[in-house]
Amino acid sequence: MSKRERKSYDKAFKLMAVELYRTGKPAGTVAKELGIGVDMLRRWAREHSETGNRSFPGNGKQDLTPEQKEIQMLRKALQESELENRILKKGSQHLLQGRQQIFRFIKDHRAEFGVEKMCRVFRVSHSGYYAWLTRRPSQLAINNELISKKIEEIYHSSKGRYGSPKITKKLASMGMDASRPRVARIMKGKGLRSVITGKFKVCTTESNHSLEVSDNVLKREFNAKEPSEKWVSDITYIRTQEGWLYLTAIMDLFDRRIVGWSMSTGMTARETVVAAWKMAVRNRSVVRNILFHSDRGVQYASQEFRELLKDKPVQQSMSRKGNCWDNAVMENFFKILKSETGYNTVYSSVEIAKKELFEFIEIWYNRQRIHSILGFLTPEEFGKSILKQAA
Questions:
Q1: How do residues 352-381 score in pLDDT, each as one tens digit?
Q2: What number is the average pLDDT over the span 58-69?
Q3: What would the mean pLDDT of 89-118 be, rounded to a whole number?
């Protein structure tokens, strides 16, 4: 068998290849376009950096002094060490996983680091990698890949708000069987973590007033058997660079839907609870006696709001003074809102904040977010399922 002829390149070709590489294009792209190896291109670039015009003398060896040779050896060792550190830093999460994950990492980053180098760093064989590369995937592997892609899709569609429990439930609703530990393991391998962290506690209640307050009729009975049986409400504040934005929300305890809301830069009753109430009664009719619960805030106790409820089938209920647990469901809604939009978020303007909050309430929370209290259905799905059962 004749020995394969080794392809050679002249100095002009090498110099132009190095210049093209230094324009910022990825080494893998340049090498592929020129039909050369990535390692070869990088070697040419190193040689040119070290010796300048003395590079590529044409006899296959660099014309170096002993001092230059020693410096070259030290630089090569340093570059090898730095490259190995980069590989380890980028692929560290795969080290404690199986060979399949390691081989997948090598495949995904072969243009960046080179197969030979990564195999040495991860201590796997070349033959094992290439055997895996050409092996036909098993049904289990195909299923894992399908579930993995679906997990990413659900995670990103929730804007990172869902953790493994809710993603597991969403997969089940799609007919895909995966345990929560399995979902958590896949998410960890892909670096997917729920954005919900930290705790939220804020008080916007001004209860130091001489206005009449109502008794606590709700008494923490947060379940309702039908729509418009029990509504709860509260006010929170949102930071913007233009000042505070106040969000008032009214929730129907039947399906946990936010039926009314208002956003204002002022804290008057008209801007807050009155506006939210008017929206709520437009969205959901009040035909029977309804229990409306809130804290003792001056807006809820105001004459203007009480006049609005006068002669309507509404009974007001208020939390005991300083007891946030009496309105725990609304406190929890604001906790969800703050955690899923970012506790430390400061919006650049009031208008941008309004758009973000509108999207969160009307699109995400009411129509897309699954709730454990509703059997992992959205408020919209829960309402439709009850109507279907009653039909």
A1: 999 999 999 999 999 999 998 999 899 999
A2: 60
A3: 72
Tokens of 195: 């954005």
Angle of helix 66-95 versus helix 38-51 axis, rounded to 10: 140
Phi and psi for 298 in degrees, rounded to 5? Answer: -60, -30
| Beta bridge partner(s), residue 233 | 250
Half-sphere exposure of 43 (CA within 13 A, CB side): 11
φ/ψ of residue 7, rounded to 5: -75, 140
